[in-house]
Amino acid sequence: MKQVLVAVGIILRHNQTFVTLRADDKHQGGKWEFPGGKVENDETVLAALRRELYEEVGIAVIQTQPLMTIEHDYGDKRVCLEVQVVTGFEGEPYGREQQQGRWVSVDLLDPQEFPAANQAIIEALQKHYRRDDVGLNP
Ligand SMILES: Nc1nc2c([nH]c(=O)n2[C@@H]2O[C@H](COP(=O)(O)OP(=O)(O)OP(=O)(O)O)[C@@H](O)[C@H]2O)c(=O)[nH]1
Ligand SMILES: [Mg+2]
To answer: To test ligand 1's pocket by mutation, which of 20, 31, 33 has the most ligand atoms within 8 angstroms of CB?
Structure first.
């Protein structure tokens, strides 16, 4: 099975991150996610991240830091998530594709509400970006 390369953005402000709800008819539908999407053939990961975060949540990405790469096999789909922390952006994120979106404290992220591949992301965030941290210094 071919692996899908995905750019994922952890939009961070203080100790909160902006998450969106995946539509029921999509892969892993009904789960919360970090905004992002597939990297097109002619794109870099960062270009895909910029494009997807504008399309999905209406922000302009200004500054990022790589967090991790996660390969995961869902059985029906294999993904490689290139996860970036978005430490600088312009605009206020919202569900630009009519999907639900909300800010949530990193401490309160519940891995059960996210696709299985996200477990390692949530662990890393809860380790490095705890309550009272400004969020910029791992
Ligand atoms: N955006 C995003 N995708 C994730 C996360 N975790 C995770 O396993 N994925 C998987 O990555 C794959 C691609 O993401 P996507 O569905 O957002 O891709 P896309 O925006 O290009 O969507 P499209 O297929 O509607 O054009 C999906 O199979 C999705 O289940 C996550 O936190 N955020
Ligand atoms: Mg997407």
So the answer is: 33
